[in-house]
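FORM 7B: Structural annotation worksheet

SECTION A. Query
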Amino acid sequence: MIYGSAEADGSAPADLDECSGHFAATPEYPGGVYHYHASLTFPNLPTCLTGTSANNAFSSAAQQGIGAPRR
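SECTION B. Predicted structure
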């Protein structure tokens, strides 16, 4: 999972590893889950992200930062 550039409470993510990820609670996983965060700087997505590509599968619940609705 890739989350926006901020935590659910609007704070900056802490303790990110070299892949822009960390193990922390999320709204969907209150017990914690390893997840990535988008960056505010290019290339925005984690450079060591691996997995399967999906077309037209982007959705976001972000309220701030990358993925949030434009105001």
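SECTION C. Observations
The chain is about 0% helix and 15% strand. Residues 3 and 37 are 5 Å apart (CA to CA).

SECTION D. Sign-off
Analyst initials: ____
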